[in-house]
Amino acid sequence: MSSKAHSTYSVEEAKRHAIALERWEGSIRSYAKAVGISESILRLWKSGKLPENSNNSAKQIMHPEIDVEVYSKYEERLAQLKPTRDFDLQRMALAAAVKLGITGFRASKGWVEKFRKRRGIVLTVTAKIGRNFA
C-alpha cells in the first residue's frame, strides 16, 4: 500500500486535465508522470467521470434555524453586557429547539464548540480586579 496522501481534485481541475490529455502527444502514462496524477484517475476523467462537486460533500448543519436563534440570543446578551458561558449557550440551544418544535436535539459540548467556531465566538474568563493570588 502506498504511503502517498490521497489528493482531492476539483471538477474544473479534472476538466482542465482531461482537455490537456487530449492534446498530449505522448501516452497517458507519460502525462500522468509529468503532472503527478495517477493513470487510473486520468483514464476516469478522460472517459467523462469527473469528481463530485466538493460543495455537496461538505457536512451541513443539521438545524441551522437553532444556530440562528442561539446567535441572536447571544448578541442580545452581549448588548446587555452579560457574561455568556458554554452552559448558557447550551441552555439557549435547548430552549430554541423546544420553541421551534425540534425533538431529539441535544446541545452537547461538541455542538457548542462547533457553534462557537462557526460564529467566531471566543469566550474569555474575566478575573476579579484587585484580588490577591497567593
TrEMBL record:
Residues covered by the HTH CENPB-type domain: 54-125
Keyword GTP-binding assigned: no
SUPFAM superfamilies listed in its UniProt record: Homeodomain-like
GO CC annotation: nucleus
Pfam families: HTH_Tnp_Tc5
Superkingdom of origin organism: Eukaryota
Major site of localization recorded for this protein: nucleus
Alphabetical UniProt keywords: DNA-binding
GO molecular function, one term: DNA binding
Compartment annotation: Nucleus
Record has DNA-binding as a keyword: yes
This protein's name: HTH CENPB-type domain-containing protein
PROSITE patterns: HTH_CENPB (PS51253)
